[in-house]
Design brief:
By secondary structure, this protein is an all-alpha fold. The protein is built from twelve helices and two strands. The protein has one domain. 74% of the residues lie in helices and 1% in strands. It has a two-stranded parallel sheet. The C terminus is likely disordered.
Length: 273
């Protein structure tokens, strides 16, 4: 069926998260393993000398598309395997070239944002990252650095510019893979789709923030009552793995609501009146 750019009701933002949890519940081990491979691939790329960080960020559109391909397969009763990360690269040369260009553009944009944020924070964000990476860092040192004005401005800049970068790339890889769109068209279609569904995305974002906040409060209270407050941080690790996995599954539902459920033979979208 052809892609159609649709208007999405705001209430659907909550449904995206709900449906993602439901799909995860059907294949929890497979999806968790898939996300573990996602993290391992990102780690391996980060170890490449000089260009590791750039390659890590540039690969993100392809890795998220692979997760969407796996989610589509699970939706249809098919397998969920790490090979689905490279499945989009087996498409025709035009689609493969467009995907690689998207990856390069995203990597360049992400690096530019990080450099700008580091400059705005006067290097404080880089120092904060170094402190957080060291398990022996005393909490007082982190608190002191967080109190610096540069950290606040750097994080604010990152939030604004990171969101601006995410909008055109949100649906773009899937539009190339399933819609056979070119680079420019996919970026434009993604931006337009997110804008037309801004109410749903607002609800979607609020739902994720509320879930994380409630989980944090519940675990803090529960472990506090049990007298093992220090274990609250330990519980955050598997919860983070679960929430991250479900988040990447939910990307498929944001796409389907915006353009309709399609296969690899979809034709370019038309604007729904």
């Amino acid at each position: 069926m052809p892609l159609q750019l649709k208007r999405v009701p705001a209430r659907n933002g909550l449904r995206w998260m709900r449906d993602a949890f439901a799909l995860f519940a059907r294949r929890p081990l497979a999806f968790t393993s898939l996300f573990a491979v996602f993290l391992f691939a990102a780690l391996v790329l980060s170890l490449v000398p000089l260009l590791g960080g750039v390659l890590q960020m540039a690969a993100l559109p392809l890795l998220t598309l692979g997760f969407m391909v796996a989610s589509r397969s699970a939706q249809q009763g098919g397998p969920v395997t790490p090979m689905q990360y490279v499945e989009p690269l087996r498409a025709d040369p035009a689609r493969r070239r467009s995907l690689l260009v998207l990856c390069a553009l995203y990597g360049a944009g992400a690096v530019a944002i990080l450099l700008l944020c580091d400059a705005v924070s006067d290097g404080a964000l880089r120092r904060l990252q170094t402190l957080l990476a060291d398990p022996d860092t005393p909490p007082a040192a982190v608190d002191a650095l967080l109190a610096e004005p540069g950290v606040t401005w750097g994080m604010l800049t990152f939030g604004v510019l990171g969101t601006a970068l995410a909008v055109p790339f949100w649906h773009a890889p899937a539009l190339v893979h399933w819609g056979a769109q070119g680079v420019a068209q996919s970026l434009f279609s993604s931006t337009l789709a997110v804008w037309r569904s801004r109410g749903a995305f607002f609800v979607y974002g609020l739902a994720w923030m509320a879930l994380i906040l409630v989980f944090g409060l519940v675990t803090a209270v529960l472990f506090g009552l049990l007298g093992v407050r220090q274990l609250a941080g330990v519980a955050a690790l598997p919860a983070g793995l679960l929430f991250s996995t479900v988040f990447y599954i939910s990307l498929l539902f944001t796409f389907d609501d915006s353009f309709g459920e399609v296969g690899s033979d979809a034709t370019p979208p038309t604007l729904e009146p």
